[in-house]
Amino acid sequence: MKMPAKDIYHDTVRNALIKDGWTITDDPLRLVYGKQDVFVDLGAEKLLAAQKGERKIAVEIKSFRGRSEVEDLEKALGQYILYEDVLSENEPERELFLAVIQSTFEVIFADSFGKLLLEKNVLNFWLLNGKKRRLRNG
Predict the structure, then answer these.
(1) Are 92 and 52 in contact (CB under 8 A)?
(2) Average pLDDT, stretch 98-119?
(3) Any idea what the CATH number is for the domain that residue 24 is in?
């Protein structure tokens, strides 16, 4: 089983989640469906005292630093759809998020392809502010 390479922002996102009160449960989160394995970058959970329960998330981290922003966007969207579908079968209580640097989000999703994706698809984002190194739910 080959482990995927970590994104350049992996440790930054991991540390920001911990700082925000999340417990990292999986690094990476292995999803098995049939005979196939895929890996989401992080699995995390947070105790919700008021609701006496917990919130579980899966976070896929993307830097969008490849040869082409469109190719990076295609890969990220394909992974997101695949992971979301497998999670809906295996762990329906876990929400999937795409973690990106805020400035990257503003560039990629201000473009026509990005705008179209935001209009046509439901995508959850964690935006990482490069200066503060803090996450915020987008």
Answers:
(1) no
(2) 88
(3) 3.40.1350.10
